[in-house]
Amino acid sequence: MVKYIERKEKNVKNENVGKRLFITIIISGLAFLLSYIINFALTPFITNNIGAEGYGFVSLAKTFASYTMIAALAINSYSSRFITIEYHQKNYEKANNFLSTTLVSNFLLAFLTLLFAIFFINRITFFLKINLDIVSDVKYLFFLMFVNFGITIIGSSFSSSAYIANRLDLTGLFKLIGYILEAGALLFLYFKFKPKLYYISLALCIQNIFIFLTNLFITKKFTPKLKIMNISFSWNAAKLLVFNGIWNSLNSLGNTLNTGLDLIMSNLFLTDTAMGELAIAKTINTMFIGLFQLIAQPFQPLFLKSFADNNMDDLLNRFKLSMVCSGFLSSLAFAGFVALGRTYYQLWVPNQNSTLLWKLTLVGCFSGIFEGLVYPLYYIYTLKIKNKIPCIITMIGGIINVIFMYILLKFTNLGIYSIVLTTAVVMTVISLITNPIYMCYCLKIRWNYFYGVIGRSVLSCFIMTLIFILLSKIINPKNWIMLIISATLMTLVGGVIHFLLVCNTKEKSFFLYKIKFKKKL
């Protein structure tokens, strides 16, 4: 009788966890959709009113601000892990030490970043090719983007509370509201005043101030043992965070060498127009990375809980389930864009070279097939504190990428394709070969444990691509309505294909239950 009650309680608990996970993904998906709609509307508006090069500088400003995240990762990449584990184990004093140290460090980093931004922006025309007509606009754009970075990293100091309470559904909801505020600010600014590039970074500041405040609310509401106003600094906590996080910073530097220098290279070696075209194509690839994050993040509190409970079977099952979900999106993205991408660009930015944009996007999406599959598994390195080897691999890959990118740009006629091809090859090797094997080593399981899911997902992607091409030829969409209908049909067909080919029995039961739960809602 006791065993029956315990089993019943466990089933109820797992059911509640599944519901929370499902709700989190839905809310985060809505937030992501709104973010996409904002970019969808902004891109043609900016290219038509300011030019493709103007949109290129928007993307470049975001990229430059992301460079400063390399330093922030040294402190922040492990803060949630340590705070969450100490809080779950009721070591509240240690948890507060980590929180306070993270907050003080982030304030200092934000201040130093602002000083660097002032120096860089005053000399921006020395570093970049900028049309004289938009120099002042670009300067304001970059300055506000760096201010936004400061707001973001200071607010991220309090992000661990959502992990502790497993309330990422709330962070998704607040992010959705934040995007609504951003959209409202953009509508007001662009329709009330003369179009300027810096409105985008100003709206981002408004959004992230709101997110900052909601992080404070979640911390006070769900983790009362964390004392926000107890400001202190622990050198021991800082050393522990930096010692482990420095490898994430170096890994981020490697990723920057792989994917973060393309806009600068196109600006310096090609033209600002080429940079703008690449920025438009990268919008889609960035959107797909956002989708992978959308799937991976709601699983992370579950990974942390299983790891803290030392429940290896549960942890591995959750890793595989997250791969199935993320792999579906990466396969759907590639297959869908093969079939509909050219039409999408013709309708979205009719004044641009749609064929060029489509081809550039496809190259990026190809490496995304494998990157999407393993994306949730990157959290293994955080759980096991094993970042040295993947960091070295990423750095080596980044250096190789930059060298070959330079060689192809300098000595061939490939032009803008040189930039995306080298990145795609390097990222495919890292995502398909080096990471899955080393992840298994970190978990002390057989080296090919994850390749079953990877192989089935690649097969699913191949079949999706063939069927989607056939469907696109049959439907032949020429307007937005038919394109949306085609994409919806392909999503449903792709979901069935992925469900049948990739999911094991447990995963099929999980998704069937979620479908029933959704109907009840």
The overall pLDDT average reads 80
**Number of helical elements:** 21
Low-confidence stretches: 1-14
The total number of structural domains is 2
Helix/strand class: mainly alpha
Care to count the β-strands?
0
Distance between the termini: 33 Å
What characteristic shape results from the CA principal axes?
globular
Report the sheet with the most strands, covering strand number, pairing sense and barrel closure. none
| Gyration radius from CA atoms, angstroms | 23 Å
Strand/helix succession: HHHHHHHHHHHHHHHHHHHHH
How much of the residues is beta strand, in percent? under 5%
Helix content: over 70%
Quaternary organization: single chain
